[in-house]
Amino acid sequence: MLGRVIDFSIRQRTLVLLATLALVGVGVYSFTRLPIDAVPDITNVQVQINTNVPALSPVEIEQQVTFPIEWSMGGLPNIDYVRSISRYGLSQVTVVFEEGTDIFWARQLVGERLTEARGSLPPGLAEPQMGPISTGLGEIYMWSVEATGLKPDGSEYSPQDLRTVQDWVIRPQLRTVPGVTEVNSIGAYEEQFHVTPDPAKLMAFGLSFRDIMQAIAENNANAGGGYIEHAGEAYLVRATGLIRDVEDIRNIIIKSDDGVPVHIRDVADVGVGDELRTGAATHDGQEVVIGTAMMLLGANSRTVSEDVHSRMEQIQKTLPENVTVKTLYNRTYLVDATLHTIEKNLFEGAVLVIVILLLLLGNLRAAVIVACAIPLSMLFAITGMVENKVSANLLSLGAIDFGIIVDGAVVFVENIVRRASEEQEHKKRRLTNDERLSIIGEAGKQGAKPTLFGKLIIMIVYLPVLTLTGIEGKMFRPMAGVVLLALA
């Protein structure tokens, strides 16, 4: 079998050369699509469900929110386990699925169960929300929003002002970057309208807190009334009721007593205030706002972080005067440093192998032919990595050993060079082209089986690594797979 393959390759040299060029073309194309990261992502397939519960204690949150959501997730296909955290203001349920489960299918199942679970939750709570489609390595870019001077009117920027810039200027623009699935904000205060009722006045007018909440909810909406035709023109009819400022809230009517309206300003103080918070964000000892861009699962971290940085440079030009954005973490720097390490090691290894081959074989052309196995093996391995969705990282590429890759080529070429040298010395003349091809075929057949068995022995050593599961499997299976692809 191996002999027939060698004979066919010698007879159809042009076809073999074209096939090699095709492999190079596919490999180069695959290289442009190869996902790049610093380390392999070992996060399992999981869906997080977050519920903001500001009014309940952790025990009450666990009993009234977390448990109903956990219970509703029972019996989902391919589910591995469910874990949860209940703390002040937050219920977080994490549904972990078996490896290999499609994340979008899993989120669809969780979303259907959440629809059923909402009926079991206490009224007045925020809707449970699924977390972003990301992983533990999804944080690819972090920045701080800082004030470098005063406002145009001479006043200082407050933490509330910086948070407003983050939420209404920076965040919406970054959400449009391809590969960004979420933009989180940390620190400072969210601007809020605060309505502080006076209990004594409420009792005097016979009102309750619920009456105020209901009045605000019913008077914070726009309504449309179709249109009116007049003189060949259409006039849209609409009622504008959205709250725009503090005065709009103060003027809301709660009820009427004998034709006398009772406004919110009659029973409560209304103003602009800050949200309640349990932490802060600082940079160099100064309170700032920190933002984090989360990468979509499966995206190229290097490409996405570069796009985010480029968009951030554009956003910087649109920020208010004396407000700046400082990059705190950019995954591109880590990935570039990792790639530099990989490139340096691979280049040094390739050069060392070529030099040793030249010294051992004593033939420049033979050394170059053997060295060609290195880029061809790398391109074939890259093609397999793209097809199997394996990222290029320190473990997957760093595991490639050029000495093992060229081992078979060394045996073939050395045997051919030796046989050709002996034959030429025996005949006392230069060999003809047909004689060279005959020697190549005979030498190739002679070393085919030993070389093949040697390769198989090396490949068998890596097979147990492919059986690893869990975190160990996610970390080391790609490494073994890339080595096997390179050896193949």
In short:
The chain is an alpha+beta fold and 488 residues long.
Annotated CATH homologous superfamily of the domain at 2-33 and 362-487: Multidrug efflux transporter AcrB transmembrane domain
- Specify the number of helices: 18
The structure class reads: alpha+beta
Using only C-alpha atoms, the radius of gyration works out to 34 Å
- Assigned CATH class of the domain at 2-33 and 362-487: Mainly Alpha
Unreliable runs: none
Query: According to CATH, what is the topology of the domain at 2-33 and 362-487?
Result: Multidrug efflux transporter AcrB transmembrane fold
Widest sheet: strand order? 2-3-1-4
Main β-sheet description: 4 strands, antiparallel
Number of strands: 16
Mind telling me which CATH architecture of the domain at 2-33 and 362-487 this is? Up-down Bundle
Q: What general form does the structure show?
A: elongated
CA-CA gap between termini: 17 Å
Q: Roughly what is the average pLDDT, rounded to an integer?
A: 84
Q: Helical residue percent?
A: 40-55%
Oligomer: single chain
Name the beta content range: 15-25%
Please tag this protein with its features:
Multidrug efflux transporter AcrB TolC docking domain, DN and DC subdomains; four-stranded antiparallel beta sheet; alpha+beta; 18 helices; Multidrug efflux transporter AcrB transmembrane fold; 21% strand; 16 strands; Alpha-Beta Plaits
